[in-house]
């Protein structure tokens, strides 16, 4: 595998000149996207072309409370406020002005899970993230009833599980939503959800803009649900598609974001989305036969479909783009966490010997070593399962490093195995989609921090999937940038429809003949001048990965047994 392109990812496009950017921000014409990811809350402020004007971030971690992976709502708001304050500091440092108003605003967060509220808006149970996989019985009943795969992490699976278990709070339910939907509601007063995030709560109908009414009826008729004092459709948020007006930032919402009182209310908001949807937007993967891989704590591949699959498959979720087009989703609970832990160990060693390395230099050097490893990683296997992994039938995760006695255990092969392992469960799931279902895919776009060392993880992924993998200048920006683009698109759509105040969005372009589609906005405005690099599968790399993946599959019983034996 070559690694000639190794270099840090750049900003998606040059920001406007200092005076122009400062004027745009001061006029309230910039657009803000905030994404609550698994390990970081990130913010991106952009102009109408998607050029990044400022960023902010806040680090956080989930907690294991009892047997539930969760984040407290106090941590949610503390993190959002700290992230916004970091963004405001960046605005002052870069542009010499204060952030007092926004042209558009959008909230994104990790998809799925269970956030239950009563009629007073009070939380009824711990927020249950996508990482919780104890809903096996409920998901199986739903999959049988609805004749399609309903994953363990979907909101409806968590709801039915809570009802089946007789949890005390279920009779007092009034509103069920995702993390993005909850934050958006607090900022705007609107109980809505973007269709991409909504498709991880309950199946979307063929119209692509609402929950499936027939399937809602079937689910409502299930004996445990039918006995409840509420109506299932009434619990769920209203579904919106990209570009639709999702409300405006209220005075109370502005104070939640910015307790200093500098931020004024009034910004139009985009439909809140999940991290899968923002990943598709951030990589321009919104048309059939395109797809994207978003790699972080978890990983998922989204492939926009040309037509229906042969039938329900446990490995494949059916969701949508933010515009409502059908998408096959391969989701894995584990991706970079174990890899990051190993690189943290190398960082400690570097400090121990008096040669500390920056994270960027360390990752670049070790990833490049992995690029020089044997194509089959020399017989070294890694299972990166911090949590359970449904794609490979591992109920409880225990990270493992395994090798044969005759394995060629070198640094290069160790790092190659770590990179293969980061995408191991994803490769298993993608086999079901590309080989078994015969789905056609012309290109897979990639984004996430693992791709910052250009060319290395990108080539690994191309070899693993057997599909060209493209990487744009925005690859390291991630979902906050994608959400900011959705906010900018909403503001442009409102302006084109005559529903906005006329504040300039900084794009220098107008939508001719009415509102632009999301696809056209991305193609004509955001990505028109971006430099895209593509890596095709390497013959030797593809063959080596096939050998490695065969051994990986053979060793899965070890990973399953480890959860039973190691506590």
TrEMBL record:
Residues 292-490 form the Carbohydrate kinase FGGY C-terminal domain. It comes from the Bacteria. The keyword Kinase applies. This is ATPase. Residues 32-256 form the Carbohydrate kinase FGGY N-terminal domain. Belongs to the FGGY kinase family. One of its GO terms (biological process) is D-xylose metabolic process.
């Amino acid at each position: 595998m070559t690694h000639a392109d190794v270099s840090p990812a750049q900003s998606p496009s040059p920001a406007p000149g200092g005076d122009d950017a400062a004027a745009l921000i001061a006029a309230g014409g910039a657009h803000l996207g905030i994404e609550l990811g698994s390990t970081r809350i990130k913010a991106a402020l952009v102009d109408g072309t998607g050029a990044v004007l400022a960023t902010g971030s806040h680090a956080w971690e989930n907690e294991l409370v009892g047997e539930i992976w969760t984040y407290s709502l106090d941590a949610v708001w503390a993190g959002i406020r700290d992230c916004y304050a970091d963004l405001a500091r960046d605005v002052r440092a870069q542009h010499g002005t204060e952030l007092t108003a926004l042209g558009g605003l959008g909230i994104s967060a990790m998809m799925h899970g269970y956030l239950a509220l009563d009629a007073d808006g009070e939380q009824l149970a711990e927020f249950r993230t996508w990482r919780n996989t104890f809903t096996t019985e409920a998901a199986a009943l739903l999959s049988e009833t609805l004749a399609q795969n309903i994953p363990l992490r979907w909101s409806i699976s968590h709801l039915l599980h809570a009802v089946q278990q007789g949890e005390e709070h279920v009779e007092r339910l009034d509103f069920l939503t995702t993390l993005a939907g909850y934050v958006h509601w607090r900022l705007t007063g609107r109980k809505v959800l973007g269709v991409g995030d909504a498709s991880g709560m309950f199946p979307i109908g063929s119209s692509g803009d609402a929950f499936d009414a027939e399937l809602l009826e079937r689910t409502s008729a299930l004996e445990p649900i039918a006995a409840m004092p509420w109506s299932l459709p009434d619990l769920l948020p209203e579904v919106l598609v990209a570009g639709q007006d999702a409300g405006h930032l209220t005075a109370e919402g502005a104070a939640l974001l910015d307790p200093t009182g500098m931020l004024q209310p009034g910004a139009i908001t985009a439909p809140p989305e999940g991290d899968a949807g923002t990943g598709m937007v951030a990589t321009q993967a919104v048309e059939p036969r395109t797809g994207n891989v978003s790699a972080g704590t978890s990983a998922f591949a989204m492939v926009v479909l040309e037509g229906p699959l042969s039938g329900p498959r446990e490995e494949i979720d059916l969701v949508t783009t933010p515009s409502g087009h059908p998408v096959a989703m391969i989701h894995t609970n584990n991706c970079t966490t174990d890899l990051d832990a190993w690189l943290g160990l190398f960082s400690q060693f570097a400090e121990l010997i008096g040669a500390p390395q920056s994270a960027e230099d360390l990752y670049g050097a070790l990833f490049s070593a992995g690029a020089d490893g044997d194509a089959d990683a020399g017989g070294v296997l890694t299972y990166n399962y911090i949590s359970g992994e449904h794609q490979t039938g591992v109920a409880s995760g225990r990270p493992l490093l395994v090798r044969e006695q005759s394995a060629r255990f070198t640094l290069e092969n160790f790092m190659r195995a770590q990179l293969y392992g980061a995408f191991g469960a994803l490769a298993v799931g993608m086999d079901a989609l590309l080989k078994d279902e015969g789905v056609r895919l012309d290109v897979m776009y990639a984004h996430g921090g693992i791709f910052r060392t250009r060319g290395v993880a990108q080539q690994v992924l191309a070899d693993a999937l057997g599909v060209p993998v493209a990487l744009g200048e925005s690859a390291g920006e991630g979902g906050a940038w994608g959400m900011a683009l959705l906010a900018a698109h909403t503001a442009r759509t409102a302006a084109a429809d005559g529903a906005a105040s006329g504040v300039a969005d900084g794009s220098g372009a107008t939508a001719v003949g009415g509102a632009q589609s999301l696809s056209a906005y991305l193609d004509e405005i955001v990505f028109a001048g971006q430099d895209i690099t593509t890596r095709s599968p390497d013959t030797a790399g593809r063959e080596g990965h096939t050998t490695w993946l065969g051994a990986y599959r053979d060793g899965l019983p070890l990973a399953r047994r480890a959860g039973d034996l190691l506590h």
